[in-house]
Design brief:
Elements lengths: L4 E3 L5 H7 L9 H30 L4 H27 L5 E3 L14 H28 L5 H28 L4 H25 L8 H4 L6 H21 L8 H9 L7 E4 L8 E4 L1
Antiparallel strand pairs: 1-2, 3-4
Bound molecules: fe (ii) ion (2 copies).
One fe (ii) ion (FE2) binds next to α2, α3 and α5.
């Protein structure tokens, strides 16, 4: 089958003026590659929320939540165009081959609510929560104000995508025991999957210096450590507080590698507007 090509050259243009000039790098290749890969990731994320919308309809979620999912798909498509503008501002072409896209799992073997919640745990509570941590860390190093503001817009949306999952699970809590059990089995698979997926996308290098970090090419090693920290001290305890045990031997191994202290456990105790993290023994 011929590979599909994503060409956002003209779609990115409206974002270029907002972005303004970026500093010229001696070798912009790594930065162009980073933002092009990001453009692809953002673009393909839209189809995930499209699939979640179908599942949310089947599970009878409120019209407001269904609308949010449709909005999220549009936001991911915009993120792709924004990243495409960064590729162009760095002197590259916002064109890339799309990878083979596996279908979003439908989980037809379980009832519609569990099918939806399995994907919500995987997408919102794992992937999007990790994305929030990684992007937030990155914003601290960004130099040009136009790029910082672009990344802040993306970050605000990703917070909404993560929060959708956490708030939905909290709304439904306490979950019936059978659902807790079903979600726990799936969450462990999803945990290991997100670890492998992120490690495959976070290169094991220490960055290319401050000039590259200012345009978003940060240390992959530091990002890997943040991944371990976020999964172990935010995601796993958050899910556990909802009756879903996502802890796996692979997560422990990752924590050991990055010296995330064993025994540190935080629990998500409040609403989105009032985040509080309580440390357990
Ligand atoms: Fe995004
Ligand atoms: Fe997202």
């Amino acid at each position: 089958m011929t590979a599909l090509v994503l060409d956002l050259q003209s779609a990115a243009r409206p974002f270029l003026s907002e972005l303004g000039e970026l500093p010229s790098l001696a070798d912009p290749t790594a930065a162009q590659r980073t933002w092009r890969a990001r453009m692809v990731n953002e673009h393909v994320s839209a189809r995930v929320f499209g699939a979640l919308l179908g599942q949310a309809m089947a599970a009878g979620l409120s019209a407001q939540r269904q609308t949010q999912l449709a909005d999220f798909a549009c936001e991911e498509l915009r993120h792709a165009r924004q990243c495409a503008a960064v590729v162009q501002a760095l002197g590259g072409a916002a064109v890339a081959e799309l990878p083979n896209l596996p279908a979003v799992p439908q989980h037809a073997e379980v009832d519609p609510l569990q099918a939806l919640l399995r994907n919500i745990v995987s997408v919102c509570c794992l992937s999007e929560t990790v994305a929030v941590a990684l992007i937030r860390a990155e914003t601290l190093q960004i130099g040009p104000p136009g790029l910082r503001s672009l990344l802040d817009q993306i970050l605000a949306d990703e917070v909404g995508h993560a929060q959708f999952g956490w708030s939905l699970l909290r709304e439904l809590a306490p979950l019936p025991a059978a659902l807790e059990q079903g979600l726990t089995s799936y969450a462990k698979v999803a945990m290991d999957h997100v670890i492998e997926h992120e490690l495959a996308h976070l290169p094991d290098h220490r960055g290319f210096g401050p000039a590259a970090a200012q345009v978003g090419v940060c240390s992959g090693r530091a990002a890997r450590a943040l991944l371990a920290d976020t999964l172990a001290t935010v995601v796993a305890p958050g899910l556990l507080s909802l009756g879903i045990d996502a802890r796996t031997p692979r997560l422990s191994q990752l924590c050991e590698e990055f010296a995330v202290p064993a025994g540190v456990c935080v629990i998500h105790t409040a609403k989105a507007s009032d985040l509080q993290w309580a440390k357990l023994a």
